[in-house]
């Protein structure tokens, strides 16, 4: 089992401590030293004030933040959580991802999804109703421009002829986020991993997604994923699956490393390969303390 966490910018207004170079470097190096396998940053380039004040959160640009992480770490993987793929021209995403993969020496994972914030789509000039079509075209562009010179593409939203973009990565894994059957079909045919969105009913309504509260909800989804993978002629061992234990994390009362280890064994038996851990967001010192505690008691446990 591999372990990662999303950088703890979890509120609005954000804790100013975490909006700093010092914080990014300190948490990233602490995570690398504690044995974490990955660190992520969320993607909200133009959140509405209404969403922020209804429980949303501020964010750093994931590509910029992960470039800083790449410069000060040696082994941890760089995994945006998540890039809303239709927000950006896919040729720009391809260039940023390939560049990050180069400077991190192969540590970048592109985790993407369609997103759900209609207002953010509007601000960025992207048609919310066409998000799925744009997403699928973007996947085609990424696969083409990363592997071929003189790449030509003619779709509804993107048209290019003779594009040769370098550097070309050896392989940037693509994780696809979301809870729908469509997402699982995309993973089976074009992805390297599935990054579902833990979402109780209320959050699921807000995020326009299928409710996903825990392993009981995930298991039938996983069964469907493996059926889709088999139909696509692929090996399920080549597909990463990301989920959370749902247990109190190292920043919470009731944290029990033994319970985490038992739950992780159960998750691993289902084919889950990565777990996302909640880290304290009230202060840098507390965040580092929880990173070190989880590394000591669970990762090394």
Helical fraction equals 40-55%
Number of domains: 1
Order of helices and strands: EHEHHEEHEHHEEEHEHHEHEH
Distance between the termini: 12 Å
User: Any idea of the CATH topology?
Assistant: TIM Barrel
Number of strands: 11
Q: What would CATH call the homologous superfamily?
A: Luciferase-like domain
What's the total helix number?
11
Indicate the structural class. Answer: alpha/beta
CATH level 1 class label: Alpha Beta
Shape label? globular
What's the arrangement of strands in the largest beta sheet?
Answer: 3-2-1-11-10-9-8-5-4
Task: Please tell me the CATH architecture by its name.
Answer: Alpha-Beta Barrel
What percent strand?
Answer: 5-15%
Task: Provide structural commentary.
- The protein is of the alpha/beta class.
- It has one domain: Luciferase-like domain (TIM Barrel, Alpha-Beta Barrel), CATH 3.20.20.30.
- Helices cover 42% and strands 13% of the residues.
- It is built from eleven helices and eleven strands.
- Strands 3-2-1-11-10-9-8-5-4 form a nine-stranded parallel β-sheet. A two-stranded antiparallel sheet has the order 6-7.
- Strand 4, helix 4 and strand 5 form a beta-alpha-beta unit.
- Helix 1 runs parallel beside helix 11, helix 3 packs parallel to helix 4 and helix 7 packs across helix 9.
- The protein is globular and about 55 Å long.
- The two termini are 12 Å apart.
- The mean pLDDT is 95.
């Amino acid at each position: 089992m591999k372990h990662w966490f999303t950088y703890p910018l979890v509120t609005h207004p954000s804790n100013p401590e975490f909006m700093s170079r010092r914080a990014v470097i300190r948490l990233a190096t602490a995570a690398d030293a504690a044995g974490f396998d990955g660190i992520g940053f969320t993607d909200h380039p133009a959140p509405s004030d209404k969403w922020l004040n209804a429980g949303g959160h501020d964010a750093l640009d994931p590509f910029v933040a992960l470039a800083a992480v790449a410069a000060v770490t040696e082994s941890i993987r760089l995994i945006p959580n998540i890039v809303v793929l239709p927000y950006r021209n896919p040729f720009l995403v391809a260039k940023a991802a390939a560049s990050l993969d180069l400077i991190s020496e192969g540590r970048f994972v592109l985790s993407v999804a369609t997103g759900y914030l209609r207002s953010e789509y509007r601000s960025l000039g992207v048609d919310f109703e066409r998000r799925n079509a744009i997403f699928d075209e973007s996947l085609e562009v990424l696969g083409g421009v990363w592997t071929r010179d003189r790449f030509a593409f003619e779709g509804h939203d993107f048209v290019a002829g003779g594009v040769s973009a370098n550097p070309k990565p050896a392989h940037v894994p693509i994780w696809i986020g979301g809870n729908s059957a469509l997402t699982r079909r995309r993973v089976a045919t074009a992805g390297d991993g599935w990054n579902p969105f833990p979402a109780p009913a209320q959050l699921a309504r807000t995020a326009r997604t299928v409710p996903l509260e825990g392993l009981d909800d995930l298991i039938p989804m996983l069964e469907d994923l493996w059926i889709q993978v088999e139909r696509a002629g692929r090996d399920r061992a080549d597909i990463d699956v990301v989920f959370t234990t749902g247990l109190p994390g190292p920043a919470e009362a009731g944290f029990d490393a033994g319970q985490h280890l038992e739950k992780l064994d159960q998750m691993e038996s289902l084919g889950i390969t990565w777990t996302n851990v909640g880290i304290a967001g009230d202060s840098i010192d507390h965040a580092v303390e929880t990173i070190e505690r989880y590394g000591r008691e669970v990762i090394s446990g």
